[in-house]
Amino acid sequence: MDEAKLNEFMGKLVSDMGASAMLANVILGDELGLYKAMADSQPITPQQLADRTGCNGRLIREWLSAHVASGYMEHRDGQFVLPEEQALALAIEDSPVYAAGGVMVVASMFHDKDKLVAAMRGDGGLPWGEHHPCMFSGTERFFRPGYKTYLVSQWLPALEGVVEKLTAGARVADVGCGHGASTIVMAQAFPASRFVGFDYHAPSITTATQRAQEAGVSEQVTFAQSTAKDFPGDDYDLICYFDCLHDMGDPVGAAQHAYRALKADGSVLLVEPYAKDTLDENINPVGRLFYAASTFICTPNSLSQEVGLGLGAQAGEGRLREVFDAAGFTQLRRAAETPFNLILEARK
Ligand SMILES: C[S@@+](CC[C@H](N)C(=O)[O-])C[C@H]1O[C@@H](n2cnc3c(N)ncnc32)[C@H](O)[C@@H]1O
């Protein structure tokens, strides 16, 4: 036994326990509006924050202290500050780095522990729809800032000739659309185009339809319940998969269906979690987060469906290329990337 290694690991474990406990506090701050009440980054006393948010002053002081101990806030002379940078991540929903939604996804993993115990001891399957509700809204809130920031400004322009088609008026399918965040962002940018979002999870389709109404794009956008292997239509200019192909049981079958549904010169936009091809190359904070979430969410979802390929959230470009090759596509290239996403373009 190497005592130095033991101490090093214990330090890491205590730090991770602190991180998990902090995430529970982040959920409180999000739900109670505490971060938003501090978003101006002005110094505030615990009692002022309690008064502003209608919360208990003593508990607020403890919550603030946890944030200082975690490096999430600063304090001086009995006052606390949420620095501008932390406010971008925790308080400002439109900011490109807003991450509170991701914390909701992590929270769902604790809620769903018993279901995972059963899946682990059984066939490994846990369908998307059986997760705690905070997983659905958390996914939407986690991914939407990235779509708002990159989709229209960087990802679509990185595809061959797609922006021109969208501007002139194109037909687009957003497969595995969830709450429709990506569909709505595209519709707002390209009013001449028509978009249809498909997802096999009926409650997500209901929410996506509401979101389209709220955003005022209902004339351009429809949502329908359908699996990735049987959605209707055979003349799409663009078929998109945002962070969902690896969740599917039969991604090859899905890609074959897209091949048939796409026009001859159409494009597939495949957005997947950022990953390299091997575990050794994915040993980093992003790989850690995605493997851990994939154990609870993505891989069990795939195993609950036919074929059950179980790509996992760290499939990497090599395995995704095999999927599209097997489906008959002749071209697949990396169009763009961010720290969280690989953006691939496939053509017939
Ligand atoms: C991680 S979520 C991403 C949702 C959405 N694209 C987004 O970016 O916010 C994965 C989505 O894939 C959907 N899904 C999984 N398997 C599917 C299948 N076989 N056919 C259609 N949708 C599927 C789930 O219901 C879920 O909404």
What is the gist of this entry?
With 348 residues, the chain is an alpha/beta fold.
Task: Describe it.
- Helices cover 50% and strands 16% of the residues.
- The chain is an alpha/beta fold and 348 residues long.
- It has 2 domains: 87 residues, Winged helix-like DNA-binding domain superfamily/Winged helix DNA-binding domain (Arc Repressor Mutant, subunit A); 203 residues, Rossmann fold (3-Layer(aba) Sandwich).
- A 7-stranded mixed β-sheet has the order 5-4-3-6-7-9-8, sandwiched between helices.
- A hairpin with a 3-residue loop joins strand 8 and strand 9.
- The longest helix has 29 residues.
- It is globular and about 65 Å long.
- The mean pLDDT is 97.
- The chain binds S-adenosylmethionine.
Keywords:
single chain, 348 residues, alpha/beta, Arc Repressor Mutant, subunit A, Rossmann fold, 2 domains, 7-stranded mixed sheet, two-stranded antiparallel sheet, binds S-adenosylmethionine
What is the strand and helix layout of this fold?
Elements: H1 3-31, H2 34-37, H3 46-53, H4 57-69, E1 74-76, E2 79-81, H5 84-90, H6 100-111, H7 113-121, H8 133-155, H9 162-168, E3 171-175, H10 181-189, E4 194-199, H11 202-215, E5 221-225, E6 236-242, H12 251-261, E7 262-273, H13 285-296, H14 298-303, H15 316-326, E8 331-337, E9 341-347
Parallel strand pairs: 3-4, 3-6, 4-5, 6-7
Antiparallel strand pairs: 1-2, 7-9, 8-9
Helix pairs in contact: 1-6, 3-4, 6-8, 8-10
The protein binds S-adenosylmethionine (SAM).
Shape: globular
CATH level 1 class label of the largest domain: Alpha Beta
Instruction: Please tell me the CATH architecture of the largest domain by its name.
Output: 3-Layer(aba) Sandwich
Count of the separate structural domains: 2
CATH fold-level assignment of the largest domain: Rossmann fold
Physical arrangement of strands within the biggest beta sheet: 5-4-3-6-7-9-8
Beta-strand portion reads 15-25%
The description of the largest β-sheet is: 7 strands, mixed
Question: What is Rg?
Answer: 22 Å
Beta-strand segment tally: 9
> How do the helices and strands follow one another from N- to C-terminus?
HHHHEEHHHHHEHEHEEHEHHHEE
The overall pLDDT, averaged over residues, is: 97
